[in-house]
Amino acid sequence: MPSPYLFLLEALRVHCKLPPFPDPIPSNQLTLQLEDGPAVSVDFNEEASMILLFSEIGIYTEEKEREVLADIAEANFLWAATNGATLSARPEIQTVYLAQQMSISVLDGQEFIALVEKFVATTQQWQTILSKKEQEKGAQATEDQEATASSVMIDKA
Length: 157
Hints:
Blueprint: H1 3-15, E1 29-33, E2 39-45, E3 50-59, H2 65-76, E4 86-90, E5 95-103, H3 109-156
Antiparallel strand pairs: 1-2, 2-3, 3-5, 4-5
């Protein structure tokens, strides 16, 4: 495995006070489950010399799909609300993801740590946004049920 990738992983490991990684690392992909945070995959593409950060944001309901996809499109416009990462969705499983790639040649250890920290913060921000959308759906459903129940009571009176 290329040494620049190992160098970056080691810088991240030391910064996060993680135990030593297996030697050798079994693949070019490593998934970190952060304490009180998201799982973040770090994948190295040797041919392109690119590092990819990847995380699942969460799931959404079919009723919220149009709104979620519109939010993703708006956020991805010039990466305005994603800190340079890209949101994507898999509608067949109603799941949102965040990914970011960077050439390994432009990163040193500190820059890589900053990139991962910013990526984690963006992931958490979008997890909160998606969660609020689902809570809004639940609150709206409760209001609709209460309104229906009230109209049924009025009709019977």
